[in-house]
Design a protein that fits this description.
Helices cover 50% and strands 11% of the residues. The protein has helices spanning 28-48, 50-60, 67-74, 78-95, 117-125, 134-146, 151-158, 163-171, 193-199, 216-227, and strands at residues 99-104, 107-112, 149-150, 175-180, 187-191.
Length: 230
Amino acid sequence: MDDVPAAGWPGPDGQVPLPGVPEGAPDAGAAEAGAADAGAAAEVAQALGLRPCLEAILLVADEPVPENLLAQILERPTAEVRAALQELADSYAAQQRGFDLREVAGGWRYYTREDFAPVVERFVSDGQEVRLTQAALETLAVVAYRQPVSRARVSAVRGVNCDGVMRTLVLRGLIEEAGSDAETGATLFQTTSYFLERLGLAGLTDLPDLAPFLPDHLDDELDHGHESRR
């Protein structure tokens, strides 16, 4: 994982905005909801303990999280939060866990331990050998038969958000960016030559006809995209 600075933390006034929350005074309803959420978070931290709450937050963070943001969320003193974070980091090191908790780029984030680099590197470089999940296979099929296609379009066809699965397929080298949509500006994706290699296909025209395997509402749409490339 790269050491990426946590952009925008803290703001010019020293305050720490919550991710995804626009600056400025919220309306009354939003303020009440925020107060309720803050109260619930504080109650959980009080009932279950500060350290497990920190673990739960950091497990879903995709960039280093500053101490003062964690303190704000859990309504605890920043010094107490820092001490708990350091205790967690020390305990992971003492237990020789496969991951570390590190303070980087103005915040805290989980990283795999350097000792396990060969294992992680092999997983990342040879991750294609790991079986794809059903969700990944379905998403890959939509991209293959509708390419070039945007994330939003793939999600619409599958009926669920596919952003995470799309990132996995990109990392596996099975799909890649293919420019942007002229009307919306959305990034488009297509399958790669590695995709064809893994499936043993000479080209996209060799993709099998999906019509016999699809529900009626998907049959015409996907098969039409396939036929248009023949």
